[in-house]
Amino acid sequence: MSSFSESALEKKLSELSNSQQSVQTLSLWLIHHRKHAGTIVHVWHRELRKAKPSRKLTFIYLANDVIQNSKRKGPEFTKAFEGVLVDAFSHVSRESEQSCKKQMERVLNIWHERSVYDGDFIQQLKLTVDESNSPSLEDNAGSKVLFDQQSSCPSSREKHGQSKKGRNSEVMKGHESAASDSSSSTSSETRFIGEENRGAKRSYPVEEDEDDDYRVNYSPIDTGTGPLLTENLIKALQDLENAASGDATVRQKIASLPQEVQDVSLLENIADKAAAERLSKIVDEACLLLAEYNGRLAAELDDRRQLARMLTEYISSQKEILGEKEKKLTEYKQKLAQVTQVRKELKSHIQNLPDLSLLPNVTGGLAPLPSAGDLFSSD
């Protein structure tokens, strides 16, 4: 789709939170634009180094989600991230507390188990994490530990809802180390199906900000690019014919999800471990389905916002063209009136001319004048 840009990615990265939904939504958007993998990784690496220490670990989780979930569609991100991961892990480990380094090591262990990268490269990343020192953090350990526990590593309430929600759930479950044992046994099953009812806080992109950004950045295009804009507009409209909101198949799948994944009270009907595992599998599949669909809807929203910009620019350019054409039309109407008036006067003048056929024959009876040859003849 045509909505990808570095500025859009920077904005999304600035809004990224440590909630799993925020990570998954942005991850799916990035995978959707995987043809820009090189640019995406470059911006990700740049923004990672600029981010506050409390947000750097979230960037690692985003990279993990993108790398693992994009493998089935192509190796673009796996190769692109490989060039910056050593520096990224070294940088984050220097800026992080020991507890967050353990989360990074957990990511690397998952990669090793799933053969995301070869063993030598993963070992290099582990050594980078182990050898990185953070003197600046040691000097301020008393104040930083509390800050990082509250900001960099998610709270126990947030950690609960991040288990078993997608293929990278093991990594996200690493946040759950501070959660109480009494609540952790059912959190992975109940978070998805009861989150809305419990009023849990979730992180969503702020639509008003994007609308404001649209108004600030809008500038009418040069009318000379009209044909190109028309072609792009037609293509954008055609692309929206296959938009996520019109995907009846996926919507039907979501509508046909069993009641067990929507009603927390039905958990009481679980009789044994096998039934609980079956329900857990169903919930995992529902989470993946909804996360992917939400990602597609987010991408569609960006496309529709881009289309709104294009329509605004197109209408503006057409108004400018219309104004020019109306000006020319007025000019040519005036010229037509002048030509019509001249034609009318010319016609009147022709009618007032005498008829030469009615004049007398002024040469009658006279000899014709001699020719030039006769004048110079010797005779």
UniProtKB/TrEMBL annotation:
<protein>
    <submittedName>
        <fullName>Regulation of nuclear pre-mRNA domain-containing 1A</fullName>
    </submittedName>
</protein>
<dbReference type="GO" id="GO:0042802">
    <property type="term" value="F:identical protein binding"/>
</dbReference>
<dbReference type="InterPro" id="IPR008942">
    <property type="entry name" value="ENTH_VHS"/>
</dbReference>
<dbReference type="InterPro" id="IPR006569">
    <property type="entry name" value="CID_dom"/>
</dbReference>
<dbReference type="GO" id="GO:0099122">
    <property type="term" value="F:RNA polymerase II C-terminal domain binding"/>
</dbReference>
<dbReference type="Pfam" id="PF04818">
    <property type="entry name" value="CID"/>
</dbReference>
<feature type="compositionally biased region" description="Basic and acidic residues">
    <location>
        <begin position="156"/>
        <end position="178"/>
    </location>
</feature>
<dbReference type="GO" id="GO:0005654">
    <property type="term" value="C:nucleoplasm"/>
</dbReference>
<keyword id="KW-0175">Coiled coil</keyword>
<dbReference type="GO" id="GO:0031124">
    <property type="term" value="P:mRNA 3'-end processing"/>
</dbReference>
<dbReference type="GO" id="GO:0097550">
    <property type="term" value="C:transcription preinitiation complex"/>
</dbReference>
<dbReference type="Pfam" id="PF16566">
    <property type="entry name" value="CREPT"/>
</dbReference>
<feature type="region of interest" description="Disordered">
    <location>
        <begin position="133"/>
        <end position="216"/>
    </location>
</feature>
<feature type="compositionally biased region" description="Low complexity">
    <location>
        <begin position="179"/>
        <end position="190"/>
    </location>
</feature>
<dbReference type="InterPro" id="IPR032337">
    <property type="entry name" value="RPRD1A/B_C"/>
</dbReference>
<dbReference type="GO" id="GO:0001111">
    <property type="term" value="P:RNA polymerase II promoter clearance"/>
</dbReference>
<keyword id="KW-0539">Nucleus</keyword>
<feature type="coiled-coil region">
    <location>
        <begin position="315"/>
        <end position="349"/>
    </location>
</feature>
<feature type="domain" description="CID">
    <location>
        <begin position="1"/>
        <end position="133"/>
    </location>
</feature>
<dbReference type="InterPro" id="IPR047882">
    <property type="entry name" value="RPRD1B_CID"/>
</dbReference>
<comment type="similarity">
    <text>Belongs to the UPF0400 (RTT103) family.</text>
</comment>
